[in-house]
Design a protein that fits this description.
The complex is a heterodimer of chains A (220) and B (184). Chain A has 220 residues and is of the alpha+beta class. Chain A is 17% helix and 37% strand. Chain A is built from four helices and nine strands. In chain A, a hairpin with a 2-residue loop joins strand 8 and strand 9. Chain B is mainly beta and 184 residues long. Chain B has one domain. In chain B, strands 1, 2, 3, 4, 5, 6, 7, 8, 9 and 10 form a ten-stranded antiparallel beta sheet that branches. In chain B, strand 9 and strand 10 form a beta hairpin. The chains are: A alpha+beta (220), B mainly beta (184). Chains A and B meet through strand 1, helix 3 and strand 8 of A and helix 1, strand 1, helix 2 and strand 9 of B.
Chain lengths: 220, 184
C-alpha cells in the first residue's frame, strides 16, 4: 500500500532534482551562486537514471523526455512541406523511459501488474475522429492508455481518467480493453517507443521496448 | 563536456532508431498544466475540479549561443519551442488580451524584441514550428514587457504561475523572462 506514495515521491524528486540540487548548492555556497552552468555528470551506474545536464529552477528537463506521435505519421512535418487538406486522425503523447542496462521483464515490469506505457504524465491517445480499434468502435476524444502485460499477450486499456499522473491507473474508469499478441524482435530498443505504423485502411499502434513489440490495429 | 554528452545522446538516439522508430529528440518535449502539477495533484486526490489549460512544447538548449538578438532575431516571428508547434490547450474558457479564448487547441508564437514581446495565439494546430504561420489564423496578439534575468537558463521553459487574476504563462530562456497574463 505504501508503494505508490514512495514511487511518486521518488519520481517527483527525480523530476525536480535540479531544484533540490540547486537548493543544496545554494545553501552550501550561497556566495558563489553559479547555478546554471553545472557540468553534466556522466553516470557510471547502469541502474541509476542519468542526472540532468543543467540546473533549471522552473521546470527541469525530464529523464524520460516526452514525445508525440501522429497518424498520419509525421503529420506536422507533412503539413509544413505541402498543402495537407485533411486533418490528422490521431496522436499519442507519452514519455520515453530508458532501459539503461536493465532487462524489461526482469528489472522494470512485472507480468500481471499495470504498466503505464510511458513515464510521468499518463500516456494519452487522442482520436480526432471516431475509430475502430480491433474492429470495435471507439468515439473520438482523449483517452489514457495503459497496459496489463502477460507473457504472450498484453491487455491494452483505454481509460477516461484524463490529465492524471501515470502511476496509478484507476481501473474503475476503464472504457475498454484489447488483447494484443507480444512478439520478439531482432531490434533492441533503448527508449520506450510508441508510433503509428501505417497498415491497410489504417494503422497499427506499435509499442516497442527492449526486444518486445505489440501492435494494436486501428482503422478510421 | 557538453559535447561529449550530446554525442552520447545522439548515439543513444541512433541506437533507438534502428527500426524506423523515432530517435530521441535533441530538444525534448515537455508539458505544463494549470493548475500547476495538476496530474500529480489528481492522483493524490488534491485537485479540485478540472484542469484549466496546458502547454505542450519542445525545449531547445542554449548550448553556448546568445539566444535573443542572436539565434532568435529581434522583430522576427519565433516558434517559441522546437519541432512541433507549441500548443496551448484550453479546457475551460479563459481571456487573453481581452479576448475570450474558447475551449480548444491553439498554437503559440512570439515576435521578440529587446524591451517587449508580442505573444501570438493562432488557431492553426498540428503544424511544425512557424514555417506555415498564417497571420489570418491569429486569434489574438498581446504585447508584454520583457525582463532581463541575472542567471541564464539553459533549456527553454514554459510554465504557468498563479496570479491575482488567474495565471501567467511564463516563458523564460537565456537571460529573458516574459509573462503573458491569462484571466480565468
Amino acid at each position: 500500500m505504501f508503494g505508490l506514495p514512495c514511487r511518486l515521491f521518488c519520481e517527483i524528486v527525480m523530476r525536480n532534482i535540479n531544484i533540490i540540487v540547486l537548493s543544496l548548492a545554494l545553501a552550501g555556497c550561497a556566495e558563489r551562486g553559479n547555478r546554471n552552468e553545472q557540468q553534466p555528470s556522466r553516470d557510471t551506474s547502469r541502474t541509476q537514471p542519468r542526472q540532468e545536464n543543467t540546473v533549471n529552477p522552473h521546470a527541469g528537463v525530464d529523464l524520460s523526455p516526452m514525445d508525440m506521435s501522429y497518424f498520419p505519421p509525421n503529420y506536422p512535418q507533412q503539413k509544413m512541406g505541402k498543402a495537407v487538406s485533411d486533418p490528422p486522425l490521431a496522436r499519442i503523447i507519452y514519455s520515453r523511459p530508458q532501459l539503461q542496462g536493465r532487462k524489461l521483464f526482469r528489472d522494470v515490469l512485472k507480468h500481471g501488474e499495470p504498466w503505464r506505457l510511458g513515464a510521468n504524465e499518463a500516456t494519452e491517445l487522442e482520436l480526432f475522429r471516431d475509430a475502430l480499434i480491433q474492429g470495435r468502435p471507439v468515439k473520438k476524444g482523449r483517452y489514457i492508455l495503459y497496459c496489463i502485460p502477460q507473457q504472450d499477450q498484453w491487455a491494452i486499456r483505454l481509460n477516461s481518467n484524463l490529465d492524471s499522473w501515470g502511476l496509478k491507473p484507476d481501473s474503475t474508469r476503464d472504457v475498454t480493453s484489447f488483447m494484443v499478441p507480444v512478439t520478439r524482435s531482432k531490434f533492441h530498443i533503448e527508449y520506450f517507443t510508441i508510433v503509428f505504423e501505417p497498415a491497410a485502411e489504417g494503422a497499427n499502434i506499435l509499442m516497442a521496448w527492449d526486444q518486445l513489440e505489440a501492435r494494436l490495429p486501428i482503422r478510421f | 563536456m557538453r559535447g561529449v554528452w550530446l554525442i552520447g545522446f545522439v548515439f543513444l538516439g541512433l541506437a533507438a532508431g534502428g527500426q524506423d522508430v523515432p530517435p530521441l529528440d535533441k530538444s525534448p518535449m515537455d508539458m505544463s498544466y494549470f493548475p500547476v502539477n495538476y496530474p500529480v495533484l489528481k492522483i493524490q486526490n488534491k485537485s479540485t475540479g478540472s484542469p484549466v489549460m496546458r502547454v505542450i512544447y519542445s525545449r531547445p538548449q542554449k548550448a553556448g549561443r546568445q539566444i535573443f538578438g542572436g539565434l532568435v532575431k529581434y522583430g522576427e516571428l519565433w516558434r517559441m519551442g522546437a519541432n512541433e508547434a507549441t500548443e496551448l490547450e484550453v479546457f475551460s474558457p479563459v481571456r487573453i488580451g481581452g479576448r475570450k479564448i474558447s475551449r480548444g487547441r491553439y498554437t503559440l508564437y512570439a515576435v521578440v524584441n529587446e524591451q517587449q514581446w508580442t505573444f501570438i495565439v493562432n488557431r492553426e494546430t498540428d503544424t511544425w514550428g512557424a514555417f506555415k504561420y498564417d497571420p489570418r489564423r491569429d486569434v489574438v496578439r498581446v504585447q508584454v514587457p520583457a525582463t532581463r534575468t541575472v542567471n541564464p537558463l539553459e533549456y527553454l521553459a514554459i510554465f504557468f504561475e498563479k496570479s491575482a487574476t488567474g495565471a501567467n504563462l511564463i516563458v523564460e530562456w537565456d537571460h529573458v523572462r516574459v509573462a503573458l497574463p491569462i484571466v480565468l
